[in-house]
């Protein structure tokens, strides 16, 4: 079962990416800041996709859908 720790992980990744992005933008590295933001988005989306997949498997098992 997925607990509140996943929410904290996603929030921590978002906070870390935001800080790194701001530091890079202040040092005139906008292109790298954009790449860091995209990488953070991909990391979070992969976490969410696995959770959605687990949700669909649970729903299939509950309603006996095959």
How would you describe the overall organization of this protein?
85% of the residues lie in helices and 0% in strands. By secondary structure, it is mostly helical. The radius of gyration is 17 Å and the shape is elongated. It starts with a helix and ends with a helix. Helix 1 runs antiparallel to helix 2. The longest helix is centred in the C-terminal third of the chain and has 33 residues, at 30-62. It has helices at residues 4-26, 30-62. The model has no long low-confidence stretch (mean pLDDT 91). It is built from two helices and no strands. It has one domain.
Helix content: over 70%
Overall mean pLDDT? 91
Strand content: under 5%
Strand elements, count: 0
Largest sheet: none
| Number of domains as seen in the coordinates | 1
List low-confidence stretches. none
| Oligomeric organization of the protein chains | single chain
Order of helices and strands: HH
Report the C-alpha radius of gyration, rounded.
17 Å
The shape is elongated
Helix-and-strand structural type: mainly alpha
Distance between the termini: 22 Å
**Total count of helical runs of at least 4 residues:** 2
